[in-house]
Amino acid sequence: TTSLNGQTTHAEETQLFVRWVKYVLRIFSVPMGEREEKELLESLGSVLSILDTRVFQDIFTLKMGFLFDLTVKKPSLITISQYLLSNTATSSAISRIYFELLLNFLVEKIDQRQLDASDSFSATIIKLFEIGL
Question: What does the radius of gyration of the chain's CA atoms come to, in whole angstroms?
Fold first, then answer.
């Protein structure tokens, strides 16, 4: 549905992009060439970086765990976090929001489990901390 003036509401826009991000991230489970994967990662980062900041925050409040779990399975997805944390590639507001959400998420994950650098879960957390700081 739309608001009385015919525009999409914030909640509708957020739900649309939440579903979109979920489906786009699932694409990475399909085998693809390195070049195609890089292009898709860059395109995803570009789209995410121009979203309304409230929508962006809502998406990653809901989907940070999903992105993290996929990154554990497919380490090349860490490129998304690198892109979103880069002030040169994104607005400083998007980078700040993503940093705050990522940091809170990682701290919660560390509280839930002891880190062991030899497993992919811990290696992903450590790498995300490195690029965030």
Answer: 15
